[in-house]
C-alpha cells in the first residue's frame, strides 16, 4: 500500500543522508552539523531550477549537486584550521545562515512562503507522482549514492580519512595531504546530501525552510551513531530503524491527547536502550584492508639505497619569549645513525619538527640533497624522503596494525579519488601489492602476528615497534626517530636495536632522540648534545660522555 | 544613541543569562567530557518545579527557586547515575553518549508535556519595577539575571579555589587521567559536578519562567546557547564560558543596531565564527 | 462437515462484504486530522483536537450521521513539519482510508495538498492563516479568516484611531510576512508610515532586542502580527519596558492572557468573532460542553475544528442523499457548494466563498478586566 511505499522512500532518502554524514563524522572525524543545510540547498536549488527554468531530470539534481558541493568546500575552509568541537560552531553558523537566506531572500527562495508546485520528475514520459512510482528511482539513486560513499570508505583514501581522524599530525607524517582530503570529503558529503534534497523536493513538491533545520541534522546524527560510525552499512540500518520505528509506534493505540508525546517518549527510551545494548553502535567499524589476501611478493625492507644528507643550518625558533632552538647546525650523514641527546626541553623534538616541516624556523634553513626545503608542508617533505616518528607515538588506535602501516605507504593511487572512482581495478591491484609490502615491513619489525589486531590492543613494546614500522612504510631515505626505545625492557631493547643498524647499513640516514645512554653508545656513530636549544657538542658517544662539563649537566 | 544604549543593556542582561547557561553547561562538559544534551530538558524540569511550588502550591517565589534548584540538582545527579555512568563504564565513545543524552532529552521533554500539559506556565510574580539607565530600560527580572550571574560567579569561584572539591574539579577538568592517578574519585566528582551544574542551570531557568513563562520545549534553545557560549569561550575554561555568554548576548543585541532583526542569529553566528577563525581555541584557550 | 461449515461461513462473510459495498455506506465515518500533537506548538494541537473530540462525541450521542458513527483519527505533524505531515497523510489514506482530513499549519497543509488532489480527499483548515493555503488544493476549504484580512482589519481600526506612525512586531513566517505585506500599502496610502518592522522567529521567547528597536522608533501604535503564545510575551514585555502606546494585534488566546497577565489590559485585537453568549445558543452550549470536558474556556481554534466536524457531518448527509460512492472529495465539494451556507458555532451562519474561504465576521476585541470584550465588527474588503 502507498503508506509503506512512502515510508520506504523516506528510508531511501535518509539512507543517503546518513551514509554521507557518516563519511564526514564517522570516517573523517569532522563533526560538522551543517548536513541539514546541505540537504536544503540541494532541495532549493533543484526546486528553483526545475520550476523556473523547467529543466528535466536529472539536470536540476546535477545543478543542485554542484552548488552544494561548493557550499561543502566553503564549510571546509575554516575546518582546515579548526577541529573538533570548534568546527561545530562553524558548521552551525553555516546552518543558521542558510536558513536565514532561505527565509529572507524572497525573490529567489520564496522566503517564508517556501516553494510550491515543484514539477515532478518525468522519466520516459511517466510522471513520478506517487510513492509507488517514485520508489524505484529513490532506491536506485540511494544505491548509487551508497556505492559512491562505499567506494570512498573502502579505498585507501577512506583509510587515510580514518587515519586523519585518529591523529592529524601522524597522518601528515605518513604523507597524507589532509587539507585536500578535508576539502574532498566535505564536497562529497555535501553533494550526496543535496542529491537527497533534490529527490525530496521533487517528491513532496513543496519545500520550506523549516524542513531543513538543526533538528534534522540531529536526527541523521542519531542514525549514524546508532548504526555505528565508520560503517556505512550501519548507517543504512540506522536510517531504516529510525524512520520505521516512529511509524511502528503509531500502531500502538493510546489516548489521542497524549498519544504522540507518549510515542516520542518511547522513541527516546528505545534510543537509549538500543545504544545501551550496543554501546559501540550496531555495526562495528569496517576495516579497509582485506587481511585474508595472501600476498606473494615480499620486497626487502632494508634493501640498499643511496640516501642523502639532511642539513639544518642556523636554525632559530622562539615560542613567545622562550628560545626553543638557537643557531642550530645539524648535519645528518647517510649510512650513519646520529643521536640527539640532552635534557628535557633542550629542543630535540623541536629540531625534528623544524627538519620535517611541522613548524617553520624563524631563521635558518633546511636542505636535503642540496635543495632548500622552505615552506613545504609536512606531507610534501615526507614524500620527498624525510620522515619522522613521534615521542607519543600517535598511533592510529582504531585502525588495525596492518592498516597503520598500509596508510603510510607512499605513492598510493588510492589516495586520489579520481583513481578510486575511475580506475578501481588499478587501485585494487596496487592495494594487493601494498599488502605485500606492508606485511614485509611487519615481518621486519616482528609484528606480523598482530597484523589484524586494532592498534589499541597492542602492548607497549609492540606499540613502539608499530611506530617504527609506520615510519619505515613511508619508504623515506631519512628516518628521524623520536625516543623510539624509551620505556622498553632490556631484552626488548636488545631485540630492537639491530633494526636500526640494518637500516643504517642499507644506506639510510638515521637520527635518534634518546635518553638511554647505553642505546646511544651502542647504536650511534655520532651524537649531538643539545641544551637550551643550542648545540653544545658533537662527537662520538664515548668522547661526549667523558666530557666533564657535559657530564655535569646531564650524565649524572 | 538611545538605541545603542538600550541594545547594550539588553546585551549585558542576555549575556548574563547565556553566561549562566555557559557556566552550568561548561562545568559539566569541561569536567566530565559528557555532551549533556539532556541539560536542556532538565533545565525545563527545574522551571516546572518552580512553577509547581509557586503556582500550584501557592508558596512564595523564593520557595519556588529553591524547589527548582533542588529539582535540578536531583535530576542532574540521577541522569549521571542512571544514564551516563553505565555508558561510561561500558567504554562508549563520546558520540554514543551524546545520542543517549538526546534520547533522555526527548523523554523528559515529552514527559513534561504529558504530565503538565501544553500551555505556557506562568508564575504570579511581584510587579516588575522598571529601571532606567538614561534612556535604556530594564525590568527587575533582568536585574535579577545580572545579579544572579555575579552571585553565582563569585560563589563558584570561591568553591573552585577554596574548597577541596573545587580544586579536585579543576584538576579533573585539566587532566582526567592525572586526576585519577593522584587519587581523585572521578566518579563521585562527576556526580557532584552534574548536581552542581544542574543546580546552577535551575537559576536562569526559573528567572526565564518569571520573565517569559515556561514551556516543555524551552530547553532546546538553552542547551544550544550554553554549548555555543562554552565553545566560543574556550572549553574547560569557566572564565571562557562567561566571556562566551557575554559575547553571544552582546553580539546578538548590538549586531542588530543597523541590521534588520531577521538576521539576528546570522549576525551572531558570523561574528562568533570570526572569533573562532582568529582564535581557534576559543576566547580563553581552554582545553584542546 | 467442517469443510462445509467453513464454506458457508466464508460465503456469508463474502456476501456481507459484497452487500456492504453495494450500499456504499462504511461502518464508521473516519475523519482524519493532522495537528500539532507534539513539539513546540503542541498547545494548538491540544485545543484543536479537543474541539474535534467534543463534536464527534456530541454527534455520536445523537446517533451519528446517517445512523453511522463518526470516528476521529488524529495524527501529528510535530508542530508544522512538512515531511511529518506527508507521512501522517499517507497513514490516514492507506491505513484508515479517510476521505476527509482536518488540517492545520501552513507547511504540512501545503505538503499534503498534492496527495489530497490525487486521492480526492476533502481538506478543511481551521487554523492556518497564510494566503498560500487558499486554493492550495482542489478540495481545500477554510473556516478561518486569513491573516492578511485580520491584519488589514486591525490596521483599519488603527487608522480610525488617528495613529500615523506604526511599529510592527511580526512572526518570521508566511503568516507574519503576509500581514506585513498586506498592511504596508494600505497604511501608507492612508497617509501613515511604518517606522519599524521587527521579525521574531516563531517559538522565540526573548524579543527584547526587537522591542528596543520598536521603542526607539517612537511609534503612535505598535502592531503585533503574531499568534499564540508569542503575542502574550510581546504584550507583557512591551508594557514592562514602559511603552504606553496602544497595542493592536490579531490574536489573544487564553494562553496569551495568562502570560501577559495584567499587562494585557487595554490590548486591542481583531479576531474571528467568537464570543459565547446567550445571543448565540449554539456557542454557549459548545462553550459549556467544552468547559465541562476540559476544565478550560474554549479557544476559537477549538471552536473552528468543532465546527468543521459539524460541517463534515452536514456534507456527509447531503452527499449520501445523492447516492452512489459519495465518500469522495469531488462529491463532497459539490455538496458543499450546492449550498455554501453553514451554521457557525460562532453564531449565525458562515458562507463559503468560491475561493474556499468561509466568510466570517471579524470583530474588534479589547481586553478589559481580564476579559476579551467585543467592541464592534470590522468590515474588511
As a whole number of angstroms, the C-alpha radius of gyration of chain B is: 19 Å
Structural class of chain B: mainly alpha
Largest sheet of chain B: 2 strands, antiparallel
Query: Beta fraction of the residues of chain A?
Result: 5-15%
CATH domain class of the largest domain in chain A: Alpha Beta
Corresponding CATH architecture of the largest domain in chain A: 3-Layer(aba) Sandwich
Oligomer: heterotrimer
Q: What is the average of the pLDDT values of chain B?
A: 90
**What is the CA–CA distance across the termini of chain A?**
84 Å
Q: Based on DSSP secondary structure assignment, what is the total number of beta strands of chain B?
A: 2
SSE topology string of chain B: HHHHEEHHHHHHH
- The helix content of chain B, as a percent range, equals over 70%
**Low-pLDDT runs of chain A:** none
Topology summary:
The complex is a heterotrimer of chains A (556), B (288) and C (381).
Chain A: H1 2-27, H2 35-52, H3 59-79, H4 85-104, H5 106-109, E1 115-116, E2 122-123, E3 126-127, H6 131-154, H7 156-166, H8 168-173, H9 178-204, E4 206-207, H10 214-227, H11 232-249, H12 256-277, E5 310-319, E6 322-332, E7 337-341, H13 348-355, E8 363-368, E9 371-372, H14 378-384, E10 386-388, H15 401-406, H16 417-422, H17 424-445, H18 460-473, E11 478-482, H19 490-505, E12 509-513, H20 517-523, E13 526-531, E14 534-539, H21 541-546, H22 548-553
Parallel strand pairs in A: 7-12, 7-13, 10-11, 11-12
Antiparallel strand pairs in A: 1-4, 2-3, 5-6, 5-8, 8-9, 13-14
Chain B: H1 2-32, H2 39-56, H3 61-89, H4 94-116, E1 130-133, E2 136-139, H5 140-162, H6 164-174, H7 176-181, H8 186-212, H9 219-233, H10 238-254, H11 264-278
Antiparallel strand pairs in B: 1-2
Helix pairs in contact in B: 1-5, 1-8, 1-9, 1-10, 2-3, 2-4, 2-8, 2-9, 3-4, 3-8, 5-6, 5-8, 6-8, 9-10, 10-11
Chain C: H1 2-23, E1 29-35, H2 42-61, E2 70-76, H3 82-94, E3 100-103, H4 106-119, E4 122-125, E5 140-142, H5 147-160, E6 165-171, H6 174-189, E7 193-200, H7 208-216, E8 221-225, H8 230-240, E9 247-249, H9 254-260, E10 268-272, H10 281-294, H11 300-322, H12 329-338, E11 341-343, E12 349-352, E13 358-359, E14 362-368, E15 371-378
Parallel strand pairs in C: 1-2, 1-3, 3-4, 4-5, 6-7, 6-8, 8-9, 9-10
Antiparallel strand pairs in C: 10-14, 11-12, 12-13, 14-15
Helix pairs in contact in C: 2-11, 3-4, 5-6, 8-9, 11-12
Amino acid at each position: 500500500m502507498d503508506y509503506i511505499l512512502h515510508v520506504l522512500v523516506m528510508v531511501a532518502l535518509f539512507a543517503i543522508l546518513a551514509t554521507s554524514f557518516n563519511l564526514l563524522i564517522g570516517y573523517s572525524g569532522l563533526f560538522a552539523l551543517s548536513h541539514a543545510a546541505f540537504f536544503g540547498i540541494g532541495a532549493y536549488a533543484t526546486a528553483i531550477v526545475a520550476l523556473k527554468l523547467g529543466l528535466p531530470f536529472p539536470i536540476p539534481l546535477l545543478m543542485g549537486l554542484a552548488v552544494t558541493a561548493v557550499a561543502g568546500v566553503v564549510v571546509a575552509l575554516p575546518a582546515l584550521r579548526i577541529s573538533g568541537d570548534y568546527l561545530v560552531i562553524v558548521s552551525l553558523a553555516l546552518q543558521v545562515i542558510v536558513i536565514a537566506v532561505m527565509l529572507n531572500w524572497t525573490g529567489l527562495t520564496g522566503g517564508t512562503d517556501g516553494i510550491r508546485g515543484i514539477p515532478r520528475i518525468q522519466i520516459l514520459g511517466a510522471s513520478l507522482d506517487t510513492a509507488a512510482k517514485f520508489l524505484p528511482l529513490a532506491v536506485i539513486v540511494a544505491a548509487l549514492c551508497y556505492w559512491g560513499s562505499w567506494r570512498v570508505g573502502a579505498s585507501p583514501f577512506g583509510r587515510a580519512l580514518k587515519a586523519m581522524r585518529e591523529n592529524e599530525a601522524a597522518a601528515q607524517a605518513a604523507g597524507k595531504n589532509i587539507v585536500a582530503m578535508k576539502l574532498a570529503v566535505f564536497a562529497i558529503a555535501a553533494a550526496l546530501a543535496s542529491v537527497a534534497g533534490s529527490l525530496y523536493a521533487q517528491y513532496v513538491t513543496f519545500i520550506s525552510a523549516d524542513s531543513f533545520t538543526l533538528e534534522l541534522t540531529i536526527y541523521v546524527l542519531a542514525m549514524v551513531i546508532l548504526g555505528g560510525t565508520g560503517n556505512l552499512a550501519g548507517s543504512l540500518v540506522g536510517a531504516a530503524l529510525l524512520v520505521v520505528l516512529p511509524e511502528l509506534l503509531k500502531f500502538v493505540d493510546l489516548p489521542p491527547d497524549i498519544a504522540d508525546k507518549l510515542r516520542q517518549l518511547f522513541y527516546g527510551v528505545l534510543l537509549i536502550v538500543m545504544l545501551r545494548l550496543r554501546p559501540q553502535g550496531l555495526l562495528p567499524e569496517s576495516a579497509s584492508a582485506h587481511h585474508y589476501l595472501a600476498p606473494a611478493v615480499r620486497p626487502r625492507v632494508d634493501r640498499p639505497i643511496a640516501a642523502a644528507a639532511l642539513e639544518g643550518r642556523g636554525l632559530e625558533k622562539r615560542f613567545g619569549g622562550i628560545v626553543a632552538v638557537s643557531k642550530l647546525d645539524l648535519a645528518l650523514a647517510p649510512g650513519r645513525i646520529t643521536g640527539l641527546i640532552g635534557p628535557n626541553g633542550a629542543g630535540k623534538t623541536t629540531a625534528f619538527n623544524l627538519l620535517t616541516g611541522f613548524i617553520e624556523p624563524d631563521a635558518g634553513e633546511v636542505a636535503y640533497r642540496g635543495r632548500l626545503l622552505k615552506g613545504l608542508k609536512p606531507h610534501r617533505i615526507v614524500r620527498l624522503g624525510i620522515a619522522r616518528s613521534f615521542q607519543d607515538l600517535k598511533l592510529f588506535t582504531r585502525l588495525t596494525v596492518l592498516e597503520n602501516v598500509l596508510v603510510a605507504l607512499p605513492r598510493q593511487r588510492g589516495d586520489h579519488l579520481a583513481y578510486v572512482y575511475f580506475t578501481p581495478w588499478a587501485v585494487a591491484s596496487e592495494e594487493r601489492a601494498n599488502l605485500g609490502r606492508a606485511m614485509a615491513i611487519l615481518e621486519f619489525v616482528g609484528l606480523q602476528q598482530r597484523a589484524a589486531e586494532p592498534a589499541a590492543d597492542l602492548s607497549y613494546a609492540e606499540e613502539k615497534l608499530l611506530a617504527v614500522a609506520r615510519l619505515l612504510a613511508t619508504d623515506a631515505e631519512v628516518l628521524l626517530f623520536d625516543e623510539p626505545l624509551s620505556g622498553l625492557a632490556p631484552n626488548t631493547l636488545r631485540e630492537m636495536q639491530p633494526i636500526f643498524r640494518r637500516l643504517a647499513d642499507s644506506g639510510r640516514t638515521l637520527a635518534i632522540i634518546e635518553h638511554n645512554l647505553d642505546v646511544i653508545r651502542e647504536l650511534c656513530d655520532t651524537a649531538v648534545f643539545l641544551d637550551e636549544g643550542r648545540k653544545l657538542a658533537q662527537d662520538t658517544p664515548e668522547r661526549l660522555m667523558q666530557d666533564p662539563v657535559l657530564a655535569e649537566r646531564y650524565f649524572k | 544613541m538611545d538605541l545603542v544604549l538600550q541594545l547594550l543593556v539588553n546585551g549585558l542582561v542576555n549575556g548574563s543569562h547565556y553566561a549562566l547557561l555557559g557556566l552550568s553547561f561548561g562545568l559539566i562538559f569541561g569536567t566530565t567530557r559528557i555532551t549533556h544534551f539532556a541539560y536542556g530538558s532538565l533545565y525545563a524540569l527545574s522551571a516546572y518545579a518552580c512553577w509547581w511550588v509557586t503556582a500550584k502550591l501557592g508558596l512564595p517565589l523564593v520557595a519556588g527557586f529553591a524547589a527548582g534548584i533542588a529539582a535540578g540538582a536531583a535530576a542532574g545527579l540521577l541522569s549521571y547515575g542512571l544514564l551516563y555512568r553505565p555508558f561510561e563504564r561500558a567504554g562508549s565513545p563520546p558520540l554514543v553518549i551524546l545520542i543517549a543524552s538526546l534520547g533522555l532529552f526527548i523523554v523528559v521533554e515529552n514527559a513534561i508535556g504529558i504530565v503538565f500539559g501544553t500551555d505556557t506556565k506562568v508564575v504570579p510574580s511581584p510587579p516588575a519595577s522598571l529601571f532606567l539607565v538614561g534612556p535604556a530600560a530594564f525590568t527587575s527580572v533582568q536585574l535579577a539575571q545580572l545579579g544572579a550571574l555575579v552571585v553565582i560567579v563569585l560563589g563558584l569561584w570561591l568553591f573552585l579555589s577554596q574548597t577541596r572539591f573545587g580544586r579536585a574539579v579543576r584538576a579533573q577538568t585539566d587532566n582526567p587521567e592525572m586526576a585519577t592517578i593522584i587519587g581523585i574519585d572521578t566518579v563521585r566528582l562527576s556526580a557532584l559536578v552534574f548536581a552542581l551544574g544542574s543546580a546552577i542551570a535551575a537559576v536562569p531557568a526559573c528567572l526565564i519562567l518569571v520573565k517569559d513563562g515556561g514551556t516543555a520545549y524551552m530547553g532546546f534553545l538553552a542547551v544550544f546557547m550554553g554549548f555555543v557560549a562554552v565553545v566560543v569561550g574556550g572549553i574547560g575554561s569557566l572564565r571562557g564560558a562567561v566571556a562566551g555568554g557575554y559575547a553571544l548576548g552582546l553580539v546578538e543585541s548590538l549586531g542588530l543596531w543597523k541590521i534588520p532583526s531577521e538576521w539576528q542569529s546570522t549576525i551572531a553566528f558570523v561574528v562568533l565564527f570570526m572569533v573562532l577563525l582568529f582564535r581557534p581555541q576559543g576566547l580563553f584557550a581552554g582545553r584542546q | 462437515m467442517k469443510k462445509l461449515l467453513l464454506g458457508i461461513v466464508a460465503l456469508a462473510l463474502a456476501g456481507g462484504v459484497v452487500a456492504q459495498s453495494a450500499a456504499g455506506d462504511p461502518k464508521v465515518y473516519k475523519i482524519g486530522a493532522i495537528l500539532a500533537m507534539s513539539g513546540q506548538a503542541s498547545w494548538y494541537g491540544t485545543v484543536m483536537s479537543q474541539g474535534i473530540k467534543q463534536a464527534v462525541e456530541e454527534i455520536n450521542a445523537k446517533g451519528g450521521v446517517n445512523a453511522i458513527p463518526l470516528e476521529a483519527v488524529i495524527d501529528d505533524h510535530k508542530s508544522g513539519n512538512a515531511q511529518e505531515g506527508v507521512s501522517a497523510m499517507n497513514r490516514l489514506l492507506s491505513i484508515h482510508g479517510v476521505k476527509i482530513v482536518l488540517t492545520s499549519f501552513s507547511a504540512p497543509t501545503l505538503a499534503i495538498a498534492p496527495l489530497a488532489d490525487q486521492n480526492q480527499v476533502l481538506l478543511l483548515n481551521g487554523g492556518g492563516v497564510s494566503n498560500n493555503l487558499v486554493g492550495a488544493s482542489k478540495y481545500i476549504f477554510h473556516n478561518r479568516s486569513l491573516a492578511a484580512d485580520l491584519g488589514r482589519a486591525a490596521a483599519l481600526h488603527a487608522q480610525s484611531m488617528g495613529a500615523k506612525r506604526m511599529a510592527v512586531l511580526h512572526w518570521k513566517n508566511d503568516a507574519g510576512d503576509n500581514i506585513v505585506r498586506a498592511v504596508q500599502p494600505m497604511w501608507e496610502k492612508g497617509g501613515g508610515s511604518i517606522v519599524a518592522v521587527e521579525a521574531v522567529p516563531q517559538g522565540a521567547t526573548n524579543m527584547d532586542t526587537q522591542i528596543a528597536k520598536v521603542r526607539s522608533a517612537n511609534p503612535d501604535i505598535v502592531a503585533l502580527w503574531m499568534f499564540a503564545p508569542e503575542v502574550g510575551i510581546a504584550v507583557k514585555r512591551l508594557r514592562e519596558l514602559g511603552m504606553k502606546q496602544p497595542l493592536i494585534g490579531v490574536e489573544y488566546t487564553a494562553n496569551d492572557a495568562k502570560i501577559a497577565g495584567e499587562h494585557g489590559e487595554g490590548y486591542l485585537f481583531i479576531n474571528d468573532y467568537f464570543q459565547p453568549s446567550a445571543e448565540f445558543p449554539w456557542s454557549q452550549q459548545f462553550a459549556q460542553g467544552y468547559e465541562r470536558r476540559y476544565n478550560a474556556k474554549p479557544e476559537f481554534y477549538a471552536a473552528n475544528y468543532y465546527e468543521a466536524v459539524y460541517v463534515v457531518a452536514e456534507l456527509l448527509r447531503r452527499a449520501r442523499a445523492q447516492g452512489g460512492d459519495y465518500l469522495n472529495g469531488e462529491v463532497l465539494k459539490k455538496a458543499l457548494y450546492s449550498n455554501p451556507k453553514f451554521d457557525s458555532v460562532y453564531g449565525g451562519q458562515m458562507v463559503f466563498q468560491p475561493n474556499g474561504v468561509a466568510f466570517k465576521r471579524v470583530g474588534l476585541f479589547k481586553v478589559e478586566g481580564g476579559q476579551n470584550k467585543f467592541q464592534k465588527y470590522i468590515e474588511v474588503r
